[in-house]
Amino acid sequence: MDLLSTVKAPQTGLSLASAGRLESCTVDDGGRLTLTLTVPREQASALSALCDDAAKKLQTLPNVTSATIILTAHRPAGVPDPQPGGHAGSLPPSAAPARPAAGAGHRPLGGAAPAPGTPVLPGVKTIIAVASGKGGVGKSTTAVNLAVGLGMEGLKTGLLDADIHGPSLHRMLGTTGKPDVVEGRLQPVQAWGIRAVSLGMLVDEKAAMIWRGPMVMGAINQLLTEVDWGDLDVMVVDLPPGTGDAHLSLTQKVPLSGAVIVSTPQDIALIDARRGVTMFEKVKVPVLGLVENMSYFCCPNCGHNTELFGHGGARREAEAMGVPFLGEVPLLADIRSSGDSGVPLVIGAPNSEGGKAWRAIAHTVAAAIRVLPH
């Protein structure tokens, strides 16, 4: 906190130490320091501009290899946002709370806000989401193998982990360390022929992301607008399970070209997959198709297939809803171990049953992407 007090805003003299309240401070075994501060909402924009310089100061502490400062700013309970233009019954200007500066809003990852009107993902031709109505169906595994598979199809591909509360793609890609920052913009990590960013690359794996909806939406907005994604043919976005804030934030912020829905074969998972299809239809995002994951278990000893969760349910659901069926992926120990080892199955075992299934799905999606309007 003494170091933070030395970095001050030139106009106001405010520092992170004087204006902020310490919420958490963690240092992992690699010396990566993560500091979370609560700051007044009206001062969040000015204070976020101090984070980069303050982080450099923190890196001078003994045994600290890198530092990240996360700011949280909450609206006081019971105080609504002012309505633009005003209307009958609205607060008068003198009583209305001050509106944050343009581009400020919730900025949980810190840093300076981009200038108003800055284009979002200007070099990205196509954006597709990978979603599921229910957790535990292999959505993130699908996102990783699909993205790497699209790269193997010759497409310049990016992968964004928008699962803020459960980021895992950094582990599945085998990346270590934090992304570089160049001229205030985060640089995606290069892994297996694609570019990727996950909140898991920025925070301690043991840290719990106890964030409400506005903070989640703010983090997704920052990962979209403040990462130097460059020119991409396609960006794959791994969404959290369900149909909540992250999904709405993404569909409102960027023009999604399509969505891939992941489900297991049993009816209880298909109920939620159906909700996912319906949600994307309501926001006018075409569903590129359904993937049936854990379609069957292939015994490594005798080669016999056992349908642990049933079989063919996603295919029947796709036919009933009039959306494409992209393929089925077996339940294999190799798929689990590939996620833990950080080597996607399409790279580590491309000729295995799972590897061939992912490659076929990526080939189908690549063909669909090439005919989509950009």
Automatic annotation (TrEMBL):
<comment type="function">
    <text>Binds and transfers iron-sulfur (Fe-S) clusters to target apoproteins. Can hydrolyze ATP.</text>
</comment>
<dbReference type="Pfam" id="PF01883">
    <property type="entry name" value="FeS_assembly_P"/>
</dbReference>
<dbReference type="InterPro" id="IPR000808">
    <property type="entry name" value="Mrp-like_CS"/>
</dbReference>
<dbReference type="InterPro" id="IPR034904">
    <property type="entry name" value="FSCA_dom_sf"/>
</dbReference>
<keyword id="KW-0067">ATP-binding</keyword>
<dbReference type="InterPro" id="IPR044304">
    <property type="entry name" value="NUBPL-like"/>
</dbReference>
<dbReference type="InterPro" id="IPR033756">
    <property type="entry name" value="YlxH/NBP35"/>
</dbReference>
<protein>
    <recommendedName>
        <fullName>Iron-sulfur cluster carrier protein</fullName>
    </recommendedName>
</protein>
<feature type="domain" description="MIP18 family-like">
    <location>
        <begin position="2"/>
        <end position="68"/>
    </location>
</feature>
<keyword id="KW-0408">Iron</keyword>
<comment type="similarity">
    <text>Belongs to the Mrp/NBP35 ATP-binding proteins family.</text>
</comment>
<keyword id="KW-0479">Metal-binding</keyword>
<dbReference type="GO" id="GO:0051539">
    <property type="term" value="F:4 iron, 4 sulfur cluster binding"/>
</dbReference>
<dbReference type="GO" id="GO:0140663">
    <property type="term" value="F:ATP-dependent FeS chaperone activity"/>
</dbReference>
<dbReference type="Pfam" id="PF10609">
    <property type="entry name" value="ParA"/>
</dbReference>
<comment type="subunit">
    <text>Homodimer.</text>
</comment>
<keyword id="KW-0378">Hydrolase</keyword>
<dbReference type="InterPro" id="IPR019591">
    <property type="entry name" value="Mrp/NBP35_ATP-bd"/>
</dbReference>
<feature type="binding site">
    <location>
        <begin position="133"/>
        <end position="140"/>
    </location>
    <ligand>
        <name>ATP</name>
    </ligand>
</feature>
<feature type="region of interest" description="Disordered">
    <location>
        <begin position="76"/>
        <end position="117"/>
    </location>
</feature>
<dbReference type="GO" id="GO:0046872">
    <property type="term" value="F:metal ion binding"/>
</dbReference>
<keyword id="KW-0411">Iron-sulfur</keyword>
<keyword id="KW-0547">Nucleotide-binding</keyword>
<dbReference type="GO" id="GO:0005524">
    <property type="term" value="F:ATP binding"/>
</dbReference>
<dbReference type="InterPro" id="IPR002744">
    <property type="entry name" value="MIP18-like"/>
</dbReference>
<feature type="compositionally biased region" description="Low complexity">
    <location>
        <begin position="89"/>
        <end position="115"/>
    </location>
</feature>
<dbReference type="InterPro" id="IPR027417">
    <property type="entry name" value="P-loop_NTPase"/>
</dbReference>
<dbReference type="GO" id="GO:0016226">
    <property type="term" value="P:iron-sulfur cluster assembly"/>
</dbReference>
<dbReference type="GO" id="GO:0016887">
    <property type="term" value="F:ATP hydrolysis activity"/>
</dbReference>
<comment type="similarity">
    <text>In the N-terminal section; belongs to the MIP18 family.</text>
</comment>
